[in-house]
UniProtKB/TrEMBL annotation:
Protein keywords: Oxidoreductase, Pyridoxal phosphate
The Glycine dehydrogenase C-terminal domain, residue ranges: 780-895
EC number(s) recorded for this UniProt protein: 1.4.4.2
Reactions catalysed: N(6)-[(R)-lipoyl]-L-lysyl-[glycine-cleavage complex H protein] + glycine + H(+) = N(6)-[(R)-S(8)-aminomethyldihydrolipoyl]-L-lysyl-[glycine-cleavage complex H protein] + CO2
Protein name stated in the entry: glycine dehydrogenase (aminomethyl-transferring)
Domain Glycine cleavage system P-protein N-terminal: residue ranges: 6-439, 456-730
Keyword Transcription tagged: no
EC class of the enzyme, as a word: oxidoreductase
Organism: Microbacterium murale
Required cofactor(s): pyridoxal 5'-phosphate
Assembly, per entry: The glycine cleavage system is composed of four proteins: P, T, L and H.
């Protein structure tokens, strides 16, 4: 029987022998050939042997892994959630589930940095931006955020930098979601922001000085009220108003923009995206005119191509890619593109009338339940609400919540000792409303009708009267036939792994196997509320425990938190753990974070957001950390050193020989070592971060552990740490448990809205590890390193390989220097990238970490035929360039420039993003 690793790893034993011979490796002993390569590349000081025993069981077959997942799923109880708090039942149209979520054309695509082969995704994202901007009544929306609570935190930071107020006070609505309050506390503490809570709906006055205010609309309690006076007061005080708004409610209620808001944030989860025990879901952010350049994350803009035709591309792209480093105000990198596409297509499929009908039905059901309870003398706390009503039942609230769960299989929210909340959503039936009402002594009822919103308990003054979603795209794809064809037409304008190799250095675009993806749509994983009781999620918690223990083992750490829902958030969580550790030891003066000049842009950004001061350490001519400069910086900052952030293997694609010496120098100075796990694909099974001196790391599950990139998200960036930092890893106020795998209890502040982040896609990485086994993970690393070295060797005579390590080996990627080509022919790295499109490839990473270069990472998933095809394309492009240099082709007429000029968008400047015209 073929084992899974043989399906996942593209090169076979025979083709690996051919590649090894091209590298000059002795292949007379096939069992040692790859080991010889790895031992020549990975420094002996960090190389580890396979463990005699492992927490990771022997590799399972695909059928066995699915059976084990079925066993986990069977221990999750899919109750009807009426908890609300930003997470709701929703009906994913089958045409969207099948043609987006389950379609590799969408989930294996990369971030649309090359617009010529991303027009489908870009159109889908501008649909998303238009949907959000229309519903919020604001001029510009970005192309998604991570979740609602972190979007609120980004809104707070936007208000801080855009406001002219000198105050450090940010006012938080007392009726905000509890998870949002917790996130704000985490983020504010590190940045010296003072949070002040006010009962805004109750009329509590704002402080005299502030830089911003958060309004939850509708509130966590369900209350719908007019916040325009509060918004006006915030403006008078010099602050900005951030409104966290429910998009479905906004189809019936006045938009934040019409109420005077500067910023609107929230989630698009209830637009067809399953709850998934917390994610992944696409958050959103929209701003009024004048704040466009303050937006974090990605924006899609409309430009024109060389023929004058409309074309989409990312706007302000340089800022987004490099995250502004130590001048950063946000570390957002990965967004939630796949989920944003689903939400946008939900709006396209239903159109404005369909969304209004769904919202009206929800509001009517909530009103009907309110009437039934009022008839029984139950106190409904608020007279006005959209989908959630809060009721006061002195002495009975907890018992009613228990009975609802045990007797009816319905989850209610205990909002206080005498308060409970009941949230209605698109999936709620009148039979369920009747069942809930019987808990309060009401008789069972037979009632079934769709509501049109006329019974809704929305204040008359807040009824929405303006049009939205007026663009034709929201009016022409309402049949399944039309929708299917529209999604297909968009996918056909894109490039994803289902078409060919995406050799992006630093991004590890390996295959996401179908078996790994299979379980994420099972109701037992997809239909779970993130705040469901522990008794309902035993399967999830056990699977999470297993994955945490496996990740701890392969990284050499003691504890792992799966909460961060992006690599950038894992970085932040790790740095906050270091900050918490120093504060607990009384070392509040340790605030300096040393970061090599070659580091990912998110490193410096995360350090700034963790309240640290960034000090850049130089790299030597080989791309390694300059030890002399490191020692000089340590001496200069002495007792201030909080941490060093180092990527290993380095961002330059080599295994640094002196890494243990580097980490020891930082430890001797009293600092902690953060090892960025972005390049773990070159290390897994051969060395461990914890063994080379790391104290904490984040891991990109969307890179090394096979979670799809999805066109720019979802991502997961769990944080792993040594035991002394474990108490400072992220906790959550609504988590189902306090103790994690290994017996560690986390007490740091949360970094994502849900206790386990994007838990709905954790089965993907669980499946990957379970089917690969420890030996398969090690084999994948060796195969990836072999492929990168093979490319470096084959292309080295045509394009210089900028950096190599010991024995002239690279790690899992190599940097090709195209600057000599430009000097000789005028052909730039951009020209080569565009020409590669003609050969059927997505270009490698351009001009990072070194301008004028291409960073190539083939991954272990590609077979030798595809790798050779890429090599031959690059050689052909070099021959074309040589023809220019020898004057056989004119500079302006040769293919690499002529084709690139035809494909390149005419306007590459910083055009302002705009809505669909």
């Amino acid at each position: 029987m073929t084992i899974f690793s043989d399906r996942h790893i593209g090169t076979t034993a025979e083709t690996q022998r051919v590649m090894l011979e091209a590298l000059g490796v002795d292949t007379s002993d096939p069992s040692m050939s790859l080991e010889t390569l790895m031992r020549g590349a990975v420094p002996a000081s960090i190389l580890s042997e396979p463990a005699a025993t492992s927490a990771i069981p022997p590799a399972a077959t695909e059928a066995e892994a699915l059976a084990e997942l079925r066993a986990f799923a069977s221990r999750n109880r899919v109750n009807r959630s009426m908890i609300g708090l930003g997470y709701y039942g929703t009906l994913t149209p089958s045409v969207i589930q099948r043609n987006v979520l389950e379609n590799p054309s969408w989930y294996t695509a990369y971030t649309p940095y090359q617009p010529e082969i991303s027009q489908g995704r870009l159109e889908a994202l501008i649909n998303f931006q238009t949907m959000v901007a229309d519903l919020t009544g604001l001029s510009t929306a970005n192309a998604s955020m991570l979740d609602e609570s972190t979007a609120v935190a980004e809104g707070m930071l936007l208000a801080r930098r855009a406001s002219k107020a000198k105050s450090e006070v940010f006012v938080v609505d007392a009726d905000a979601f509890p998870q949002t309050k917790a996130i704000l506390e985490t983020r504010a503490a590190a940045l010296g922001i003072e949070l002040v809570e006010r009962d805004l709906a109750g009329g509590e006055a704002l402080p005299d000085e502030l830089f911003g205010v958060l309004v939850q609309y509708p509130g966590a309690s369900g209350r719908v009220w007019d916040p325009s006076a509060v918004i006006d007061a915030a403006h008078v005080a010099g602050g900005l108003a951030v409104v966290a708004a429910d998009l479905l409610a906004l189809t019936l209620t006045s938009s934040p923009g019409s109420l005077g808001a500067d910023v609107a944030v929230g989630t698009t989860q209830r637009f067809g995206v399953p709850m998934g025990f917390g994610g992944p879901h696409a958050g959103y952010m929209a701003v009024r005119q004048g704040l466009e350049r303050q937006l974090p994350g990605r924006l899609v803009g409309v430009s024109v191509d060389a023929d004058g035709k409309p074309a989409y591309r990312l706007s302000l792209q340089t800022r987004e890619q490099h995250i502004r480093r130590e001048k950063a105000t946000s570390n957002i990198c990965t967004a939630q593109v796949l989920l944003a596409v689903m939400a946008a297509m939900y709006a396209v499929y239903h159109g404005p009338d369909g969304l209004r009908q769904i919202a009206g039905d929800v509001a009517s059901k909530a009103a009907v339940l309110g009437d039934w309870l009022a008839e029984r003398g139950v106190e409904v706390v608020h007279e006005t609400y959209f989908d959630t009503l809060q009721v006061r039942v002195p002495g009975e609230a907890a018992e009613i919540v228990r009975r609802a769960h045990d007797e009816l299989g319905i989850l209610l929210h205990l909002a206080g000792p005498d308060l409970l909340s009941i949230a209605v959503d698109e999936t709620t039936t009148f039979a369920e409303l009747s069942a809930v009402s019987t808990l309060f002594g009401a008789p069972a009822r037979v009632f079934d009708a769709r509501g049109d919103g006329t019974r809704a308990r929305i204040p008359n003054a807040l009824h929405r009267t303006d049009d939205y979603l007026t663009h034709p795209v929201f009016h022409v794809h309402h049949s399944e036939t039309a929708m299917m064809r529209y999604l297909k037409s968009l996918a056909d304008r894109d490039y994803a792994l289902d078409r060919g190799m995406i050799p992006l250095g630093s991004c590890t675009m390996k295959l996401n196997a179908a078996t790994e993806m299979a379980s994420i749509t099972w109701p037992e994983f997809a239909g779970i509320h993130p705040f469901a009781p522990a008794s309902d999620v035993e399967g999830y918690l056990d699977m999470i425990d297993q994955l945490e223990s496996w990740l701890a083992e392969v990284t050499g750490y003691d504890a792992v938190s799966l909460q961060p829902n992006a690599g950038s958030q894992g970085e932040l969580a790790g740095l906050l753990a270091i900050r918490g550790y120093h504060l607990a030891n009384g070392d509040d003066h340790r605030t300096v974070c040393l970061i090599p000049s070659s580091a990912h842009g998110t490193n410096a950004a995360s350090a700034v957001l963790a309240g640290m001061k960034v000090v850049v350490v130089a790299c030597d001519e080989l791309g390694n950390v300059d030890l002399d400069d490191l020692r000089a910086k340590i001496t200069a900052h002495a007792d201030e050193i909080a941490a060093l952030m180092i990527t290993y293997p380095s961002t330059h694609g080599v295994y640094e020989q002196d890494v243990v010496e580097v980490t020891a120098a930082v430890h001797d100075a009293g600092g902690q070592v953060y090892v960025d796990g972005a390049n773990l694909n070159a290390l897994l099974g051969y060395a461990r971060f914890g063994d080379l001196g790391g104290d904490v790391s984040h891991l990109n599950l969307h890179k090394t552990f096979a979670i799809p990139h999805g066109g720019g998200g979802p991502g997961i960036g769990p944080v792993a740490a040594k035991a002394h930092l474990a108490p400072h890893l992220p906790s959550h106020p609504l988590a189902q448990r306090a103790v994690h795998a290994g017996g560690y209890e986390f007490a740091g502040g949360p970094v994502s809205a849900a206790p386990y982040g994007s838990a709905g896609i954790l089965p993907i990485s669980w499946s990957y590890v379970r089917m690969m086994g420890a030996s398969g993970l090690r084999d994948a690393t060796a195969a990836a390193v072999l492929s990168a070295n093979y490319i470096a060797a084959r292309l080295g005579e045509h394009f210089p390989v900028l950096y190599t390590g010991e024995n002239d080996r690279v790690a899992h990627e190599c940097i090709l220097d195209l600057r000599p080509l430009k000097e000789a022919t005028g052909i730039t790295v951009d020209d080569v990238a565009k020409r590669l499109i003609d050969y059927g490839f997505h270009a490698p990473t351009m001009s990072f970490p070194v301008p004028g270069t291409l960073m190539v990472e083939p991954t272990e998933s590609e077979d030798l035929g595809e790798i050779d095809r890429f090599i031959e394309a690059m050689i052909m492009i070099k021959h074309e360039a040589d023809a220019v240099a020898s004057a056989r082709w004119p500079r302006r007429g040769q293919p690499a420039r002529a084709r690139a000029a035809h494909r390149r968008l005419a306007d590459l400047g910083g055009v302002e993003p705009r809505l669909l015209a």
